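Need a sequence for this fold. Nothing fancy.
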């Protein structure tokens, strides 16, 4: 979500989550699964069963091995809470899975992010014990399958909420075998024929404990919900790829798409002041793949504006002027949902990132929506949570509560009480 930086005030919180926890020793199978029955494994927690403006409780877990997991979210100034999160811990605590989904598109964003959360929960509920035996290649394969499943489930939810008026189409070819110029690609449309807008980011992190006590940490993501692996000296590595329109690799990916299959492609542009037709905004990349030096050296002097406290210029992926009904303007190049934009190059395929921890070192994993990240320089966030967790000895739950509260306070100050975004943060410690 692109915003201009300006002042703000606080609004109440909202939390949407699932948690799957192993039973504690000496207790029954229902023990330790989560803080509230409606979020237990045996419960039903489907889209539309809870008012998204109702405050729910936090989720957290500690265990004797020092692995702590906690998550929380705060509703921003929008009508709907579009962020959701969850985590699960395997029976023998060898696998920890964290997930954040940042929806966009109002109510449809709420539907998309919660569908993503529920699909992940259902996906791992029956195989948490089995997945402790998976090797890295099996995890990568499974994460790709999971993202594909979430994408399809969001489509099914959009179809269901549109009743008989919703239609999902497949690609079609003409008599010569070429893709028709007006094809639609699994697009969900409302009764008027306009596409249903909305989707979600997805960042899923899997921490796998090895026999020597180290961890292999796998990140899978679409969109810009950043995940980080933070060491106790505050150094960090990314567990996600930023799928934004200023990413050179994403620009190359779209440009290299088959011309017959993708006759019209997304254009990567800066959001320029007083330029209301986004396809007329200045392009992020020149034809040779480099950035225009005048916008790099003096962005604000050329009408651009920062979208976060790192002073990164706001950017969009948009469709050309020739596209009308399915016109796209989105702040990311990969997402789940947003079916109308797939025909122009938006992708639902996740990037996979693999990191390994050092033996004897302490680490934390942090996954958050841009409602958090827009308020921090990444190195400052790493130092902040390290001070909380490693220097002051706070539990992960305390660190999440404190860091999220600080993020909301910064968001209010920077973006204003009428514009600040939902914020969601889930963390775990690996010791």
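Here you go.
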């Amino acid at each position: 979500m692109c915003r201009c930086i300006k002042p703000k005030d606080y609004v109440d919180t909202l939390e949407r989550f699932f948690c799957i926890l192993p039973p504690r020793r000496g207790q029954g199978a229902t023990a330790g699964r989560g803080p509230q029955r409606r979020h237990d494994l045996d419960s039903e927690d489907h889209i539309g069963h809870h008012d998204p403006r109702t405050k729910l409780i936090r989720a957290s877990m500690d265990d004797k091995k020092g692995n702590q997991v906690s998550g929380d979210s705060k509703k921003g100034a929008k009508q709907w809470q579009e962020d959701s999160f969850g985590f699960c811990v395997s029976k023998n605590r060898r696998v920890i899975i964290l997930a954040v989904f940042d929806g966009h598109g109002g109510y449809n964003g709420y539907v998309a992010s919660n569908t993503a959360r529920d699909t992940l929960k259902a996906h791992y509920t029956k195989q948490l014990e089995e997945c402790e035996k998976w090797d890295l290649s099996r995890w990568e394969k499974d994460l790709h399958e999971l993202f594909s499943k979430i994408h399809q489930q969001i489509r099914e939810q959009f179809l269901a909420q549109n009743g008989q008026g919703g239609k999902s189409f497949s690609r079609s070819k003409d008599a010569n075998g070429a893709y028709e110029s007006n094809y639609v690609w699994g697009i969900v449309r409302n009764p008027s024929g306009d596409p249903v807008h909305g989707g979600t980011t997805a960042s899923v992190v899997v921490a796998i404990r090895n026999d020597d006590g180290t961890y292999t940490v796998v990140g899978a993501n679409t969109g810009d919900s950043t995940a980080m692996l933070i060491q106790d000296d505050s150094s960090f590595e990314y567990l996600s790829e930023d799928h934004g329109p200023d990413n050179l690799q994403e620009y190359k990916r779209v440009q290299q798409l088959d011309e017959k299959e993708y006759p019209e492609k997304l254009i990567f542009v800066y959001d320029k002041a007083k330029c209301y037709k986004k396809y007329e905004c200045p392009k992020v990349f020149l034809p040779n793949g480099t950035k225009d030096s005048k916008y790099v050296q003096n962005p604000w002097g050329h009408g651009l504006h920062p979208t976060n406290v790192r002073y990164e210029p706001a950017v969009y992926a948009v469709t050309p002027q020739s596209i009308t009904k399915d016109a796209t303007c989105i702040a990311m190049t990969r997402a789940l949902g947003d079916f109308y934009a797939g025909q122009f190059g938006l992708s639902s395929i996740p990037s996979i990132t693999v990191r390994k921890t050092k033996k004897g070192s302490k680490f934390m994993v942090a996954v958050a929506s841009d409602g958090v990240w827009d308020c921090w320089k990444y190195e400052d966030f790493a130092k902040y949570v390290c001070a909380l967790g490693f220097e002051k000895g706070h539990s992960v739950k305390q660190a999440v509560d404190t860091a999220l509260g600080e993020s909301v306070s910064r968001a209010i100050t920077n973006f204003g009480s009428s514009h600040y975004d939902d914020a969601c943060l889930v963390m775990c410690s690996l010791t």
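For context: Helices lie at 107-125, 136-161, 248-255, 293-297, 370-373, 378-391, 396-415.
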